[in-house]
Amino acid sequence: MPIYQVIVLAIIQAVTEFLPISSSAHLELVPWLFGWKDPGLTFDVALHVGTLVAILIYFFKDWVQIVGQGFGLNIGTDPELNGIVGCSGCWLLLPFPSASSVSVQQAGGKHLAKSYVIGSMLIVIGIVMWIADRSATGKKDMGNVSWGDGMWTGIAQALAVVPGTSRSGITITPDCSGG
To answer: 13, 14, 106, 109: which has the fewest C-beta neighbours closer than 10 Å?
Structure first.
C-alpha cells in the first residue's frame, strides 16, 4: 500500500473517530471511491489500535478516576467526574453484549461490508440519533445512571459491527433518549 494512501486513511480515521459518524465506513468507502485496493482488516485494526492507545494516554487520569470510583476509591480531581459512583461500575457490563457482536461480524462481516449497507446504515443511524437527540429531556445527570443504562449502552454498542454504524453515535443514542 502506498504511503500516501496510509496517510489519507490515517487522517480520515483521526478526524472521524471522535465524531458520531462511522470511521470504519469511511475507511471502507474512501478506497472504494478512489479505486484503491482494499487495505484489509489488519490495516483497519492497526488504525483502531492506534486510536485506542491515543485515547488511553490522553484520558489516562480520567480513566483512573472513573475506575477508582467504581471500586469506591476517591481518586482524581476532575469535578465533572465526581459523583458518578452510581455508574462507574457500568463499564463492567459493556464487554458482554459487545463480545457477542464479534461472532456476528465473523459470520456475516464479508456480506455486511457492501457499500450500499454502509450508506444505508449511515443514513439510518443518523436518523435514529436525530430522534434520540430530539426526545432527550436533559434531566438525567451522571450520578443517576443505572446498571440498566449501562447494559442498554453495551447492547447498542454491539450494533457497531454493522459497517456504517458509528460506535460513538450508537453508544450515546440510548443515553440521550434515556434522559
So the answer is: 106
